[in-house]
Design a protein that fits this description.
This protein is an alpha/beta fold. It is built from 10 helices and 13 strands. Bound molecules: ligand PBG.
Length: about 325
């Protein structure tokens, strides 16, 4: 391909690092690549994400793609709305980074070592609900801003700890600051955390083919499909915070031959009379070809257990 491929990116350190890996992989195939920075409302506003809406980081990039200002866009997959976008193809899902959440605490502390009353910063309802469910007496402080801003609240002494995605810290070269990588038994990550989504215009089949053949990782695609299917089914049924983690695992079939299956764990909050909140959890295993069904099945199980409900079984969309 002789034309220059323009890749749209947000200007944050994390976005530039993520787009940089995609640009490098494309350059290695001999393609000529140019980065174009696009400012999104999510970069300008400092309001909590739940109030400014899903897609706050992604819509402006998609507008630039459809307008032809850029040819390729790179998102943190977990920031993408679950509904597909007309005219845009998910051309590649590159190999995922470690999807787990990470703690950055003062004095090298782990979660279990933080004394009751410790101030832990996060802007994520999913992280908040799971931290509270641990019953450690932590005080959750809502925060926003880029990764450096959040980390700075620990080094300045304003907070005892913050929780961030391990992948983001590693990508910007700050994995050294992590004091504990949280076990998914305690803290299930956001669906698609640690994965990237690389999009192009559906009509641009040459670029789509180049992206897929250069960057796509089937194992990541399957895992993320299961997690996002769970999220989409729960979004339709309740507005509770959701965590999910799918892993492709080796298993034995009926004849004893080794096959790959998907293991999916999910969590969603249930609210009970009097305001008590609990995190419901469920897990299931399926054939690798059944990722989407697996997500839906697990979502149905969480809804049956009372995900999002205001008083025991029974549902609400609030
Ligand atoms: N919501 C912001 C966001 N989007 C993607 C990442 C990190 C990278 C990733 O999860 O892929 C982050 C920061 C964070 O959650 O700590």
């Amino acid at each position: 391909m002789s034309r220059v491929i323009k890749i749209g990116t947000r200007g944050s350190k994390l976005a530039l690092a993520q787009t940089g890996t995609v640009a490098d992989a494309l350059r290695a195939t001999g393609a000529e690549v140019e980065l174009v920075t696009v400012t999104t409302p999510g970069d300008v506003s400092s309001a909590p994400i739940p109030t400014i809406g899903v897609g706050v980081f992604t819509s402006a990039l998609r507008d630039a793609l459809l307008a032809g200002d850029v040819d390729v866009i790179v998102h943190s997959y977990k920031d993408l709305p679950t509904a597909p976008h007309e005219g845009i193809s998910l051309a590649a899902v590159p190999p995922r980074e470690d999807p787990r959440d990470a703690l950055i605490a003062r004095d090298g502390l782990t979660l279990g070592e933080l004394p009751p009353g410790s101030k832990v910063g996060t802007g994520s309802p999913r992280r908040t609900a799971q931290l509270q469910a641990l019953g450690l007496g932590l005080e959750i402080v809502p925060i926003r801003g880029n990764i450096d801003t959040r980390m700075g609240k620990v080094s300045s002494g304003e907070l005892d700890a913050v929780v961030l995605a391990r992948a983001g810290l590693v990508r910007i070269g700050r994995g050294d600051a992590i004091t504990e990588t949280l076990d998914p038994i305690q803290m299930l990550p956001a669906p698609a955390q640690g994965a990237l989504a690389v999009e192009c215009r559906s009509a641009d089949v040459d670029t789509e083919h180049l992206l897929r053949s250069t960057l796509d990782d089937e194992t990541t695609r399957v895992a993320v499909a299961a997690e996002r299917s769970l999220l989409a089914a729960l979004e339709a049924g309740c507005s509770a915070p959701v965590g999910a983690l799918a892993e492709v695992v080796e298993d034995l079939d009926a004849e004893g031959a080794v096959i790959e299956r998907i293991s999916l764990r999910g969590t969603a909050a249930a609210e009970f009379e009097g305001g008590a909140v609990d995190m419901l959890r469920a897990s299931a295993l399926a054939e690798k070809t059944e990722a989407v069904e697996l997500g839906r099945t697990l979502a149905a199980e969480l809804l049956d257990l009372g995900a999002g409900a205001l008083s025991g079984p029974g549902r609400t969309t609030q």
